[in-house]
């Protein structure tokens, strides 16, 4: 093909000569616009609506080869198949791809675009694992086109090339679908390349082009107006009998127009019709695009009107395409005329946002702003509708694209005046600071200053941070000059945190500031100097400074944290004691009236900030320190002593406790430590008869034997003999015997005998009731014999006898009603009305459907529709509406059909009505009408409905209907195209139709769909079964076992012992028996958790020089670390490194190492491990990061927590860590450093900022503070919680504190809290959630009762009693459970089935019989049922 294109004998284009196409239908379906990208970056190949319009003056000749990538042939061997890491990594890769696909796909569905950040995150994850699959490569390549509207076209193409080259280098296997995806990206990004060279590279890589390739190459030629090149490919396609689809014609429309021949472009439409292809929306879009390029508004209007008169319809995003083309061609004056035709359909906002982003990216921000003003009002982008913020995305992208500040200001002014955005200038400033655009930020702050808006010091922090990291003093001073120019003073926080770290010391920082005209307040400089000296450990200089009588007053809280850090660094015990004594005795360093308490808390925080290892290492110094304090007459309050004592007790330092005891006031308590089977039925009957006769002769009771005999006879359906036996022993008959006989009569259709037996049983004992199945059997029997009123009497008796119903009973009831449909609608209606009126069952679509079935069976469609509408009005159910609509469509009763549609629209909404009508047309084969319905503007996909109909088609082998449904939904908003095509493939699998499956694969490529792994595996299975070649790389399944026989029995045993890890350890090379034995034993012992034994085997292997793989070392290290044995784990690591030079711990082992180090208070080592993991592209576990951050919080290491947070934010894979992990532990770090104000400030900021997310929890902070008995911190945090509740209506903090007080059994404090902040009692969701958590653990009944005593009405009795019953079940307290059950019955509170199931289990465990029928299903069944019942009201509200 490449040689053909190089030939000088190029074919001339002749529509009549080339387009001999048979058939009357389109050769290809209308193509998807959902996944083809955003409006701005359009591609010509498959979907001309996304054609990227180029300059009409471009040369028509072939493009130079310089623009073509070097598509190297993929190497055959992509790595050693026996690589020990490969299988495990591929397993992880497959799992991660599902996440990547979901993230990217969800982004496209919600917004129609992906961000560069998300795409790069997925790409980096893929590179780190090192084994890219073909499907993953396809996903990344496809995302580099118009789905990136925020990136310039050139950058998109560069990114695509980078991904292509990198994945090829890593061993990715490319097939035709990858080359087609790259072609699509080239078209969307208007990248100039040579189709000839492109084909040559495909041939060199042994990849055969397919129909989609040729279509996109035609599009590439036409994009530049090269009709000759397009004609050449058309001729080749014809010679290969490849169909010429609508996409090809659409490309030719564009090609002729770009060549300057608009008339020939317009003449393509008649040619299409002659070829049997009706011009669709895509064709008209191609025409509209060429008219827009030329600014021919008259032709645009004319074409739009002709489309409205045809069967085709254009969506809003099509008109946006026209707007983009007009703007790009310089005809912005016509944009308002087209914008007026926008209908603001569903999905308008994301489509319009993408248009705006594309326009801004390509320098047409004025047009973008015009479109922004067409957005519907009140589309705020934040949670608060009181604060309008429309246009955030617009302002952010303008800043990122360096739009002139003057324009930004003008846009901001208009947005604010139009009441679309409350603070546009401030938001633009925020974006500038976030993007580190210093010049733009300074200009915006100047303008804000001129407008009288406040400029605060923290606005400059992002700019200072950038320079601080690089120790750029000049940059810092430039920012400070800007602050001075704007009249913003440098406060203490800015100086300490963002300026001082850049300079060698305080003096040099102050001098530098003075040089630029920034004179800091002397007190602030002095405070910074104190902090600096304290933090550095220069305690002698600090003592000299503080002892100076001229030193001003300074509250201890301003430098407590730094002083603690200094104390931990210094070994000068005498100086530390003197400074501590100074803090106790000098009034300058404490608030009035709290001197001794503040200084004592300093001692507590000092000990709390040390790890157990530090305390034990410095025990002698600390003992000396405490003795010096005693000699200086320092005493501490008893509560502080208890706190220090508890800490030292946890550090296992009893001698230090004695030393601290000397400092305590008064007396203290010490630390607290405390018959043979028969051959056949006849033999059994004979034996029972003999036994019955013997019992009667001996005048013994015959009841059980008589019942067993009757049961046996009924099982053999010997009714006469059973009745005779009943007659002989009528006095001994029991209810069970009658019930068995009645059931047999119902089975044998003997209505008279059944009713006689029922009357005899009632005369014998009127209080005895049958079980539900027997009653319903009688109802069915009587109804079928036209004795409907007697059947209704049976239903009434069921109600009187309080017969319990289960789901099985409801199913049986449906079958009874369905059986009576033969008797006509009147009988069914009488029974149905009685069931619902008596309350035997709640109305459901299932129970209402037999009535509709009766009408449909009698061909009374009007009656069926009336009955269905009556069910909807009475019971809220609309049974069998699909069958009614299908019947009405088949009969052509348009009047009744319109009536049905009006009713459905009124009751269930217009969208439901449209889907009902759509499936009605589909079921009857009226596909043309169905297409019109599904193309209704604004219609969204409903996956559940499509799945239901697809299952019908698959079970009925209806390929035509299924194929049409998939074809029609190509343009449907939010339609999962992979899922739709998978339905066709499933039917192909059932019918073994590989040709249809292959054609489906081609259509999926035309739509640019990224198939899921399961879809590819299904298609590959179909092709392989029929002996066909699979044209793509089949994704591996991580859980598949290797075929038997590939490895020896020993390797198979190893795989069984260790699963995936053992499979990863297999090697194709022949290993020695000794090596295999050691490997097998290590993996087996590790799986069993026998770390010590496995370590012994490893040492033996090392001594014998046996080579092991990385998997074995990592497995043993993981088991050792899981037991906390870090020393042996590190020994194993050293052995591994000596054997394998490139060995490193895998993700799990590294995470376990972090956890172990954090538990052992080796915080610095844990941080270093985390840094190493991230540098080697490993992903730490969520738990490891959480434990590390908690350890840092215990040590008061604020800087460490902030560094950890920065590292996590920079990761490619999100760990889904809650932001509160960092916020809570930062607060604890402040508290442990004695900086209560800092803790309150951090926490308060979280709850006072506007957010649409639920308020986060700070229970962790309250719990830790309560455990430390830090009353000062508790008072501060309590005041903060009350302030948030009373001033900001934020009740989460107060609720957390209240519940934590209850949890710690501080009931009086909880009462006091409730009195001060009574809104806590109204937070019922939190309280019920707390009660739910309590019910998960034994011994929590008292806390629930305490909660009820404090807030009696926080939940209903049914919920409260259910949780109490669950608690009693956890406590195995049957007596209390019985009492509660009796109380519930007396109060008329319903006991749900889950609670009854628990109570019945308690009775059984105690050896007692429950006084009720135990629910038969599993716990999970009733739990799920309870959840559904809870969700139902919310779902109903949502539907309304």
Report on this structure.
The chain starts with a helix and ends with a helix. It is globular. It has 77 helices and no strands. It is mainly α. Helix 17 (348-361) runs antiparallel to helix 18 (365-372), helix 30 packs across helix 33 and helix 64 runs antiparallel to helix 65 (1198-1209).
Topology:
Blueprint lengths: L1 H5 L8 H4 L67 H26 L4 H14 L4 H9 L10 H17 L6 H13 L6 H10 L6 H13 L3 H13 L6 H13 L3 H13 L6 H14 L2 H13 L6 H13 L6 H5 L8 H14 L3 H8 L19 H9 L4 H13 L6 H11 L3 H13 L10 H9 L3 H13 L6 H8 L6 H10 L6 H15 L2 H9 L12 H10 L3 H13 L9 H14 L3 H6 L1 H13 L6 H13 L3 H8 L19 H17 L5 H13 L3 H10 L6 H13 L3 H14 L7 H13 L3 H13 L6 H13 L5 H14 L6 H13 L3 H15 L5 H11 L2 H15 L1 H14 L3 H8 L8 H13 L3 H10 L8 H15 L2 H13 L6 H13 L23 H10 L1 H6 L7 H15 L3 H13 L6 H13 L3 H14 L7 H13 L3 H13 L6 H13 L3 H12 L9 H14 L3 H13 L10 H9 L3 H18 L3 H12 L3 H10 L7 H11 L6 H10 L6 H15 L2 H14 L5 H13 L13 H21 L1
């Amino acid at each position: 093909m490449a040689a053909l294109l190089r030939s000088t004998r190029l074919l001339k284009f002749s529509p009549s000569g080339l387009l001999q196409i048979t058939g009357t239908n389109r050769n290809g379906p209308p193509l998807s616009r959902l996944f083809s990208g955003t409006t701005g970056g359009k591609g010509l190949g498959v979907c001309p609506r996304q054609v990227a319009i180029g300059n009409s003056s471009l040369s028509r000749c072939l493009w130079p080869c310089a623009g073509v990538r070097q598509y190297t042939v993929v190497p055959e061997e992509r790595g050693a198949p026996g690589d020990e890491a490969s299988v495990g990594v591929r397993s992880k890769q497959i799992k991660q791809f599902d996440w990547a696909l979901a993230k990217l796909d969800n982004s496209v569905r919600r917004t129609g675009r992906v961000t560069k950040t998300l795409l790069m995150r997925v790409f980096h994850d893929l590179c780190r694992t090192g084994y890219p699959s073909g499907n993953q490569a396809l996903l990344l390549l496809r995302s580099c086109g118009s789905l990136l509207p925020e990136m310039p076209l050139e950058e998109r193409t560069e990114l695509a090339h980078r991904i292509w080259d990198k994945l090829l280098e890593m061993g990715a296997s490319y097939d035709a679908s990858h080359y087609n995806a790259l072609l699509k990206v080239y078209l969307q990004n208007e990248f100039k390349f040579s189709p000839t060279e492109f084909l040559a590279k495909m041939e060199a890589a042994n990849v055969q082009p397919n129909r989609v390739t040729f279509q996109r190459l035609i599009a590439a030629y036409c994009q530049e107006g090269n009709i000759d090149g397009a004609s050449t490919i058309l001729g080749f396609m014809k010679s290969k009998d490849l169909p010429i689809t609508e996409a090809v014609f659409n490309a030719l429309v564009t090609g002729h127009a770009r060549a300057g021949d608009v008339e020939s472009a317009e003449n393509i439409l008649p040619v299409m019709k002659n070829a049997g292809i009706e011009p669709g929306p895509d064709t008209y879009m191609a025409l509209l695009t060429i008219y827009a390029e030329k600014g021919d508004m008259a032709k645009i209007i004319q074409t739009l009107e002709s489309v409205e008169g045809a069967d085709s319809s254009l969506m809003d995003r099509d008109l946006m395409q026209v707007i983009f083309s007009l703007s790009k061609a310089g005809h912005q004056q016509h944009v308002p005329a087209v914008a007026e035709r926008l209908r603001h359909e569903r999905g308008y906002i994301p489509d319009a946002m993408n248009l705006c982003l594309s326009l801004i990216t390509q320098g047409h921000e004025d047009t973008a702003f015009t479109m922004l003003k067409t957005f519907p009002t009140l589309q705020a982008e934040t949670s608060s509708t009181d604060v309008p913020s429309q246009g955030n995305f617009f302002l952010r992208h303008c800043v990122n694209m360096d739009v002139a500040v003057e324009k930004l200001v003008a846009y901001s002014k208009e947005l604010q005046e139009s009441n679309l955005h409350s603070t546009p200038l401030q938001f633009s400033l925020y974006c500038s600071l976030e993007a580190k655009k210093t010049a733009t930020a300074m200009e915006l702050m100047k303008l804000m200053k001129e407008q009288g808006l406040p400029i605060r010091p923290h606005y400059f922090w992002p700019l200072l941070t950038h320079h601080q990291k690089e120790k750029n003093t000049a940059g810092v001073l430039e920012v400070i000059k800007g602050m001075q120019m704007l009249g913003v003073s440098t406060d203490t926080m800015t100086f300490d945190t963002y300026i001082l770290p850049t300079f060698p010391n305080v003096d040099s920082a102050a001098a530098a500031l003075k040089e630029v005209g920034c004179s800091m307040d002397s007190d602030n400089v002095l405070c910074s100097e104190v902090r600096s000296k304290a933090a550095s450990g220069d305690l002698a200089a600090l003592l000299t400074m503080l002892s100076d009588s001229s030193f001003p007053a300074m509250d201890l809280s301003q430098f407590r944290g730094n002083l603690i850090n200094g104390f931990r660094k210094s070994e000068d015990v005498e100086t530390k004691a003197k400074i501590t004594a100074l803090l106790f005795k000098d009034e300058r360093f404490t608030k009035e009236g709290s001197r001794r308490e503040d200084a004592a808390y300093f001692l507590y925080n000092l000990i709390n900030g040390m790890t157990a290892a530090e305390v034990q290492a410095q025990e002698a110094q600390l003992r000396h320190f405490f003795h010096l304090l005693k000699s200086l007459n320092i005493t501490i309050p008893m509560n502080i002593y208890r706190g220090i004592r508890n800490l030292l007790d946890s550090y296992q330092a009893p001698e230090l406790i004695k030393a601290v005891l000397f400092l305590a006031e008064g007396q203290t308590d010490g630390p607290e430590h405390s018959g043979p089977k028969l051959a056949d039925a006849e033999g059994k009957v004979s034996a029972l008869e003999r036994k019955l006769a013997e019992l009667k002769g001996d005048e013994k009771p015959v009841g059980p034997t008589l019942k067993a005999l009757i049961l046996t006879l009924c099982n053999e359906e010997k009714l006469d003999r059973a009745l005779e036996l009943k007659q002989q022993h009528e006095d001994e008959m029991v209810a069970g015997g009658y019930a068995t006989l009645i059931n047999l009569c119902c089975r044998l259709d003997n209505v008279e005998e059944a009713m006689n037996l029922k009357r005899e049983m009632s005369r014998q004992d009127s209080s005895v009731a049958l079980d539900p199945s027997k009653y319903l059997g009688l109802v069915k029997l009587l109804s079928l014999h036209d004795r409907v009123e007697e059947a209704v009497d049976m239903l009434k008796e069921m109600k009187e006898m309080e017969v319990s119903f289960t789901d099985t009973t409801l199913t049986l009831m449906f079958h009874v009603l369905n059986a009576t449909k033969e008797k006509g609608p009147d009988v069914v209606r009488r029974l149905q009305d009685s069931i619902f009126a008596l309350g035997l069952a709640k109305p459901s679509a299932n129970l209402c459907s037999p009535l509709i079935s009766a009408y449909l069976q009698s061909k009374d469609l009007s009656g069926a529709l009336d009955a269905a509408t009556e069910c909807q009005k009475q019971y809220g159910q609309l049974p069998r509406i699909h069958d009614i609509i299908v019947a009405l469509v088949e009969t052509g009763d348009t009047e009744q059909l319109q009536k049905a549609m009006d009713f459905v629209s009124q009751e269930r909404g217009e969208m439901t009505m449209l889907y009902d009508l759509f499936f009605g047309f589909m079921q009857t084969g009226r596909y043309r009408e169905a297409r019109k319905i599904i193309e209704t503007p604004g219609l969204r996909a409903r996956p559940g409905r499509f799945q239901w109909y697809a299952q019908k088609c698959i079970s009925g082998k209806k390929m035509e209907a299924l194929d049409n449904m998939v074809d029609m939904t190509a343009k449907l908003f939010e339609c999962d195209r992979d899922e739709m095509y998978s339905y066709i493939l499933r039917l192909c699998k059932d019918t073994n139709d590989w040709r249809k499956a292959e054609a489906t694969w081609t259509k999926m490529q035309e739509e640019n769909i990224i198939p899921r792994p399961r879809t590819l595996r299904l298609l590959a299975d179909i092709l392989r079964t029929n002996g066909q070649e699979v044209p793509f790389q089949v994704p591996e399944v991580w859980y598949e076992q290797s075929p038997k026989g590939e490895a020896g029995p020993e390797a198979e045993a190893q795989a069984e012992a260790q699963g995936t890890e053992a499979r990863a350890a297999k090697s194709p090379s022949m290993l020695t028996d000794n090596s295999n034995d050691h490997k097998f034993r290590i993996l087996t012992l590790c799986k069993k958790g026998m770390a010590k034994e496995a370590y012994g085997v490893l040492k033996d292997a090392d001594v014998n020089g046996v080579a092991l793989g990385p998997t074995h070392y990592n497995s043993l290290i993981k088991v050792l670390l899981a037991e906390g044995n870090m020393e042996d784990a590190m020994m194993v690591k050293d052995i591994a490194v000596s054997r394998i030079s490139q060995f490193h711990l895998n993700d799990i082992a590294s995470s376990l190492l972090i956890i172990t180090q954090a538990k052992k208070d080796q915080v610095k080592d844990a941080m270093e491990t985390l840094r190493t993991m991230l540098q080697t592209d490993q992903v730490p576990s969520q738990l490891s990061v959480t434990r590390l951050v908690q350890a840092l919080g215990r040590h008061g290491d604020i800087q460490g927590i902030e560094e950890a947070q920065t590292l996590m934010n920079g990761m490619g894979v999100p760990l889904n860590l809650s932001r509160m992990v960092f916020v809570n532990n930062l607060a604890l770090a402040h508290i442990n450093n004695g900086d209560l104000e800092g803790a309150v400030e951090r926490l308060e900021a979280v709850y006072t900022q506007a957010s649409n997310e639920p308020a986060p929890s700070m229970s962790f902070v309250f719990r830790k503070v309560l455990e430390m008995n830090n009353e000062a911190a508790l008072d501060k945090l309590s005041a903060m919680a009350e302030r948030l509740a009373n001033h900001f209506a934020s009740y989460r903090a107060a609720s957390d504190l209240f519940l934590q007080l209850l949890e710690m059994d501080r009931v009086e404090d909880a009462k006091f809290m409730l009195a001060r902040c009574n809104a806590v009692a109204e937070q019922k969701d939190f309280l019920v959630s707390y009660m739910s958590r309590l019910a998960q653990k034994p011994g929590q009944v008292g806390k629930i009762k305490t909660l009820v005593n404090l807030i009696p009405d926080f939940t209903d009795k049914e919920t409260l009693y259910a949780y109490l019953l669950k608690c009693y079940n956890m406590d195995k307290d049957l007596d209390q459970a019985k009492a509660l059950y009796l109380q519930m019955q007396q109060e008329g509170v319903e006991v749900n089935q889950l609670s009854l199931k628990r109570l019945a289990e308690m009775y059984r465990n105690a050896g007692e019989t429950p006084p009720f029928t135990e629910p038969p299903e599993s716990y999970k069944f009733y739990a799920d049922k309870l959840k559904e019942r809870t969700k139902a009201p919310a779902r109903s509200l949502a539907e309304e």
